[in-house]
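Give me structure tokens for this 183-residue protein.
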Amino acid sequence: MSSAFPSKQHPSSGENMPFVSGELETRWCGAVGEEVTRFIIQWLEGRMNDLSLPTRQRKRIVHVSIEILQNIHHHARGNEDVTVFQIIRSDDVWHVQSQNEVQEEQQEILQSKWKEWLQLSPKEWRSTQLEKLASSERSMHGGGGVGLNEILRKSDGQVELNFLTHKHGERLVQFSVQISPTS
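Here you go.
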């Protein structure tokens, strides 16, 4: 593991995360707020500079990581011991993964929105995002609901979204995003 920053390591954190072979670049377990997001992104930018990643891939990894960390910060509910953010590097492909608890109504909304996004083409993702940004309608966090769109666009659709029930009955949402140099 490349990171050296502290995180709350709980035995159940991430045990259900999709397996990706490669080098674990960083892992954060526990609550995510603005300070944690800033810390992780600053570390990530330094790490990618050290590895001399292509600029386009670097920007995409940062954008996806920010969106996922913001999703955790704004939408994670309940048991923080199951909250995980991690990045795995496999050759030149980077995998940004997360897991957090969600309420039943959040899961239903997310599943519905996800289904809608997957029926659109990449070109439609872009035009829909522009329409949302131009609209005066915003979510309670001010983003207008463009986070999922941004994740899909920056990864060229290489995203898995899964829901599962943890051993204590918590509803979990997992994102697994793949970003290659050509994404």
